[in-house]
Structure formats: structure tokens, C-alpha cells
């Protein structure tokens, strides 16, 4: 299953919980975010799904997510889809990458066994703070046998 199929899997679950308020490939600010949940006229969840392709790609994903946030958006997530065997080292690389990001504002805190939260500054207004949650999902490759 590719990124779009996996995103649809997340959307099905989220729509069950949020009564149809979750949408995919939805325009917000400067682009289309993979997952957006709106309650009334406020965004309550903005997420980007990406397969892990290394620290540089993850840093670019942080920039991508920041471009999707308006001034009112203060929470975002990156759902990292990981197929390789070195899951623990990928999590460490992601933490190092976010800490080195120019918008990093501190407070990196583990979130369960496969994620973390941290503070970032908004791209257009460095005084405006937000919380970025990274959740990693190990998705093994299909067996060829």
C-alpha cells in the first residue's frame, strides 16, 4: 500500500471518531495538507503523511507542514511511515533533525514509544508558537514468498 492508501486508512478511522469532519488533500493556507479535521470553522488537526526517506526529507516535510498553517493553527502532526528495520534509529534521526530546524522552539518530549512532540515557531510569525507531533508507524514490506 502506498502513501495515499495508508492516508485513506487513517481518514476512515478519524471520520469514525470525528463524525465525518476529517478530509484528505485539503487546501489550507499555502497548500494541500494530507489530513485536515475541522470542527465548526476551526482546524483542530493538520497532518502530513510521509514515508521516511532520511533526515533531509523529514526537514523538508517540517517546512511543508509549516507552509500549511495559518496564524490560528497551533497544532500539527507528521505521520512518518517507515518500512525499514532500523525503526529506533529513524526516531533518533527525526528528533535530531527537528532540534536542528531553524523554527525549533524547544520542549522535545517523547510521545509513547514511537513519537515525540516539540515546540516550533510559526514560519511567518516567529512570536507565534505551535506544537508539532511526530508519530511513526512501522509498515513492513510485503513478503515476496
Mean of residue pLDDT? 83
Class inferred from helices and paired strands? alpha/beta
- Major beta sheet, strand line-up: 1-2-3-4-7-6-5
What ranges have pLDDT less than 50 throughout 5 or more consecutive residues? none
Alpha carbon gap, first and last residue: 17 Å
Notable characteristics:
about 140 residues; about 30% helix; about 40% strand; 3 helices; single chain; 7-stranded mixed beta sheet; alpha/beta
Please explain how this structure is put together:
By secondary structure, the protein is α/β, with parallel strands linked by helices. It has one domain (3-138). It is 30% helix and 40% strand. It is built from 3 helices and 7 strands, in the order H-E-E-E-H-E-H-E-E-E. A 7-stranded mixed β-sheet has the order 1-2-3-4-7-6-5. The protein is globular and about 45 Å long. The mean pLDDT is 83.
